[in-house]
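Hi team,

Filling in the usual template for the complex we talked about on Friday. All components are listed, including any nucleic acid strands or ligand strings, so the model treats them as one assembly.

SUBMITTER: L.P.
PURPOSE: interface mapping
COMPONENTS: two
RESIDUES: 223
SEQUENCES:
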Amino acid sequence: DAKTTQPTSMDCAEGRAANLPCNHSTISGNEYVYWYRQIHSQGPQYIIHGLKNNETNEMASLIITEDRKSSTLILPHATLRDTAVYYCIAPLNTDKLIFGTGTRLQVFP
Amino acid sequence: DSGVTQTPKHLITATGQRVTLRCSPRSGDLSVYWYQQSLDQGLQFLIQYYNGEERAKGNILERFSAQQFPDLHSELNLSSLELGDSALYFCASSVGAGVPYEQYFGPGTRLTVT
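RESULT (copied from the run log):
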Protein backbone atom coordinates (compact mmCIF):
# COMPACT_ATOMS: atom_id res chain seq x y z
CA ASP A 1 0.00 0.00 0.00
CA ALA A 2 1.10 3.53 -0.63
CA LYS A 3 1.96 5.31 2.61
CA THR A 4 -0.48 8.10 3.34
CA THR A 5 0.15 11.06 5.59
CA GLN A 6 -2.66 13.10 7.10
CA PRO A 7 -2.75 15.84 9.72
CA THR A 8 -3.63 14.50 13.14
CA SER A 9 -6.49 16.91 13.69
CA MET A 10 -8.36 19.81 12.12
CA ASP A 11 -11.13 22.19 13.09
CA CYS A 12 -13.86 23.59 10.90
CA ALA A 13 -16.73 26.00 11.54
CA GLU A 14 -20.19 24.69 10.87
CA GLY A 15 -21.40 25.68 7.41
CA ARG A 16 -17.91 26.21 6.07
CA ALA A 17 -16.06 23.91 3.71
CA ALA A 18 -13.79 21.36 5.34
CA ASN A 19 -10.69 20.58 3.29
CA LEU A 20 -8.85 17.49 4.46
CA PRO A 21 -5.45 16.91 2.85
CA CYS A 22 -3.69 13.61 2.28
CA ASN A 23 -0.20 13.00 1.01
CA HIS A 24 0.47 9.76 -0.88
CA SER A 25 3.69 10.51 -2.72
CA THR A 26 4.58 6.82 -3.27
CA ILE A 27 1.27 5.92 -4.90
CA SER A 28 1.53 3.74 -7.98
CA GLY A 29 -0.40 4.16 -11.19
CA ASN A 30 -3.09 1.63 -10.42
CA GLU A 31 -3.73 2.46 -6.78
CA TYR A 32 -6.95 4.23 -6.02
CA VAL A 33 -7.35 6.76 -3.24
CA TYR A 34 -10.19 5.98 -0.85
CA TRP A 35 -11.70 8.07 1.90
CA TYR A 36 -13.63 6.64 4.81
CA ARG A 37 -14.74 8.20 8.05
CA GLN A 38 -15.61 6.86 11.46
CA ILE A 39 -17.98 8.66 13.76
CA HIS A 40 -17.24 7.73 17.35
CA SER A 41 -17.24 3.90 17.67
CA GLN A 42 -19.63 3.47 14.73
CA GLY A 43 -18.70 1.37 11.73
CA PRO A 44 -16.48 3.18 9.24
CA GLN A 45 -18.41 4.85 6.44
CA TYR A 46 -17.28 4.92 2.83
CA ILE A 47 -17.16 8.45 1.44
CA ILE A 48 -15.55 8.51 -1.99
CA HIS A 49 -12.71 7.12 -4.08
CA GLY A 50 -10.82 8.11 -7.21
CA LEU A 51 -7.92 7.20 -9.45
CA LYS A 52 -6.87 10.21 -11.52
CA ASN A 53 -9.85 12.44 -12.08
CA ASN A 54 -11.61 14.56 -9.52
CA GLU A 55 -14.74 12.94 -8.17
CA THR A 56 -17.89 14.25 -6.55
CA ASN A 57 -20.82 12.54 -4.91
CA GLU A 58 -23.58 13.56 -2.56
CA MET A 59 -21.25 13.49 0.42
CA ALA A 60 -18.03 15.08 -0.75
CA SER A 61 -15.61 15.98 -3.51
CA LEU A 62 -12.20 14.45 -4.04
CA ILE A 63 -9.50 16.51 -5.69
CA ILE A 64 -6.43 14.56 -6.83
CA THR A 65 -3.35 16.44 -7.99
CA GLU A 66 -2.14 15.80 -11.51
CA ASP A 67 0.96 13.94 -10.27
CA ARG A 68 -1.30 11.92 -7.93
CA LYS A 69 1.02 12.52 -5.00
CA SER A 70 -1.67 14.16 -2.90
CA SER A 71 -5.39 14.62 -2.65
CA THR A 72 -7.94 16.70 -0.77
CA LEU A 73 -11.31 15.63 0.50
CA ILE A 74 -13.79 18.50 0.53
CA LEU A 75 -16.95 18.54 2.61
CA PRO A 76 -18.63 21.58 1.08
CA HIS A 77 -20.83 22.61 4.01
CA ALA A 78 -19.66 20.92 7.19
CA THR A 79 -22.21 20.14 9.89
CA LEU A 80 -21.76 19.01 13.47
CA ARG A 81 -22.56 15.48 12.31
CA ASP A 82 -19.42 15.52 10.16
CA THR A 83 -17.27 15.43 13.29
CA ALA A 84 -15.36 12.18 12.87
CA VAL A 85 -12.00 10.59 12.11
CA TYR A 86 -11.31 10.69 8.37
CA TYR A 87 -9.08 8.05 6.80
CA CYS A 88 -7.27 8.40 3.50
CA ILE A 89 -6.22 5.00 2.14
CA ALA A 90 -4.35 4.03 -1.03
CA PRO A 91 -4.46 0.23 -1.00
CA LEU A 92 -2.46 -1.86 -3.43
CA ASN A 93 -4.78 -4.68 -2.57
CA THR A 94 -8.34 -3.50 -2.16
CA ASP A 95 -9.18 -6.76 -0.43
CA LYS A 96 -7.46 -5.58 2.74
CA LEU A 97 -7.84 -1.97 3.76
CA ILE A 98 -5.18 -0.72 6.13
CA PHE A 99 -6.47 2.13 8.24
CA GLY A 100 -3.89 4.51 9.65
CA THR A 101 -4.55 7.04 12.36
CA GLY A 102 -6.50 9.43 10.14
CA THR A 103 -7.48 13.06 10.72
CA ARG A 104 -9.77 13.90 13.59
CA LEU A 105 -12.09 16.61 12.25
CA GLN A 106 -13.92 18.68 14.81
CA VAL A 107 -16.77 20.80 13.47
CA PHE A 108 -17.73 23.58 15.86
CA PRO A 109 -20.88 25.75 15.97
CA ASP B 1 -27.78 2.48 7.61
CA SER B 2 -25.22 0.63 5.47
CA GLY B 3 -27.39 -2.45 4.97
CA VAL B 4 -24.87 -4.66 6.76
CA THR B 5 -26.18 -6.22 9.95
CA GLN B 6 -24.20 -7.66 12.83
CA THR B 7 -25.34 -9.60 15.86
CA PRO B 8 -25.06 -9.39 18.76
CA LYS B 9 -24.41 -5.71 19.44
CA HIS B 10 -22.74 -6.41 22.75
CA LEU B 11 -21.18 -9.53 24.18
CA ILE B 12 -19.65 -10.02 27.62
CA THR B 13 -17.88 -13.26 28.35
CA ALA B 14 -15.12 -14.72 30.45
CA THR B 15 -11.57 -15.63 29.58
CA GLY B 16 -11.21 -19.05 28.02
CA GLN B 17 -14.67 -19.01 26.50
CA ARG B 18 -15.72 -19.19 22.85
CA VAL B 19 -18.07 -16.83 21.04
CA THR B 20 -19.55 -16.49 17.56
CA LEU B 21 -20.18 -13.18 15.86
CA ARG B 22 -22.57 -13.05 12.95
CA CYS B 23 -22.69 -10.80 9.90
CA SER B 24 -25.23 -10.43 7.12
CA PRO B 25 -23.89 -8.54 4.10
CA ARG B 26 -25.82 -6.07 1.97
CA SER B 27 -28.15 -7.70 -0.51
CA GLY B 28 -26.17 -8.67 -3.59
CA ASP B 29 -22.73 -8.32 -2.01
CA LEU B 30 -20.49 -11.35 -2.40
CA SER B 31 -17.51 -10.26 -0.29
CA VAL B 32 -17.44 -10.14 3.47
CA TYR B 33 -14.58 -8.70 5.52
CA TRP B 34 -13.86 -8.80 9.24
CA TYR B 35 -11.98 -6.11 11.15
CA GLN B 36 -10.97 -5.72 14.77
CA GLN B 37 -10.70 -2.36 16.49
CA SER B 38 -9.11 -2.16 19.89
CA LEU B 39 -8.11 0.98 21.74
CA ASP B 40 -4.39 0.55 21.23
CA GLN B 41 -4.34 -1.03 17.77
CA GLY B 42 -6.79 0.90 15.65
CA LEU B 43 -8.70 -0.85 12.86
CA GLN B 44 -7.06 -4.11 11.85
CA PHE B 45 -8.08 -6.27 8.90
CA LEU B 46 -8.63 -9.88 9.89
CA ILE B 47 -9.98 -11.90 6.98
CA GLN B 48 -12.04 -11.74 3.79
CA TYR B 49 -14.38 -14.19 2.12
CA TYR B 50 -15.66 -13.97 -1.42
CA ASN B 51 -18.62 -16.08 -2.47
CA GLY B 52 -17.91 -18.67 0.19
CA GLU B 53 -14.16 -18.92 -0.26
CA GLU B 54 -11.41 -17.37 1.83
CA ARG B 55 -9.73 -14.71 -0.29
CA ALA B 56 -7.45 -12.62 1.90
CA LYS B 57 -6.01 -12.95 5.36
CA GLY B 58 -4.62 -10.35 7.71
CA ASN B 59 -3.27 -10.61 11.22
CA ILE B 60 -5.87 -13.09 12.36
CA LEU B 61 -4.94 -15.20 15.38
CA GLU B 62 -5.05 -18.98 15.13
CA ARG B 63 -7.68 -18.95 17.89
CA PHE B 64 -9.96 -17.06 15.50
CA SER B 65 -11.71 -18.58 12.51
CA ALA B 66 -14.38 -17.50 10.10
CA GLN B 67 -16.56 -18.86 7.36
CA GLN B 68 -19.05 -17.65 4.81
CA PHE B 69 -22.16 -19.72 4.24
CA PRO B 70 -24.07 -20.42 1.00
CA ASP B 71 -26.54 -17.65 1.83
CA LEU B 72 -23.46 -15.36 2.06
CA HIS B 73 -23.76 -14.53 5.74
CA SER B 74 -20.55 -14.92 7.68
CA GLU B 75 -19.55 -15.93 11.18
CA LEU B 76 -16.39 -15.10 13.09
CA ASN B 77 -15.52 -17.60 15.81
CA LEU B 78 -13.26 -16.52 18.65
CA SER B 79 -12.03 -19.20 21.04
CA SER B 80 -9.88 -19.42 24.17
CA LEU B 81 -10.66 -15.79 24.71
CA GLU B 82 -8.15 -13.54 26.43
CA LEU B 83 -8.56 -10.12 27.99
CA GLY B 84 -6.76 -8.61 25.03
CA ASP B 85 -9.46 -9.81 22.65
CA SER B 86 -11.81 -7.19 24.06
CA ALA B 87 -12.54 -4.94 21.09
CA LEU B 88 -15.06 -3.80 18.54
CA TYR B 89 -15.45 -6.28 15.71
CA PHE B 90 -16.71 -4.90 12.43
CA CYS B 91 -17.96 -6.72 9.40
CA ALA B 92 -18.00 -5.09 5.98
CA SER B 93 -19.26 -6.19 2.59
CA SER B 94 -18.72 -5.25 -1.02
CA VAL B 95 -20.15 -6.28 -4.36
CA GLY B 96 -16.95 -7.80 -5.66
CA ALA B 97 -13.34 -8.41 -4.80
CA GLY B 98 -9.91 -7.54 -6.13
CA VAL B 99 -11.13 -4.42 -7.92
CA PRO B 100 -11.89 -0.99 -6.51
CA TYR B 101 -15.17 -1.83 -4.82
CA GLU B 102 -16.01 0.21 -1.78
CA GLN B 103 -16.68 -1.59 1.48
CA TYR B 104 -19.78 -0.97 3.58
CA PHE B 105 -19.41 -1.54 7.29
CA GLY B 106 -21.86 -2.84 9.84
CA PRO B 107 -22.44 -1.27 13.26
CA GLY B 108 -20.07 -3.67 14.98
CA THR B 109 -20.12 -6.09 17.89
CA ARG B 110 -18.54 -4.90 21.12
CA LEU B 111 -16.85 -7.82 22.82
CA THR B 112 -15.82 -7.54 26.45
CA VAL B 113 -13.76 -10.35 27.94
CA THR B 114 -13.59 -10.36 31.75
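MY TAKE: The beta strands of chain A are 9-13, 18-23, 33-38, 45-50, 55-56, 61-64, 70-75, 84-89, 103-108. The mean pLDDT of chain A is 92.

Thanks, L.
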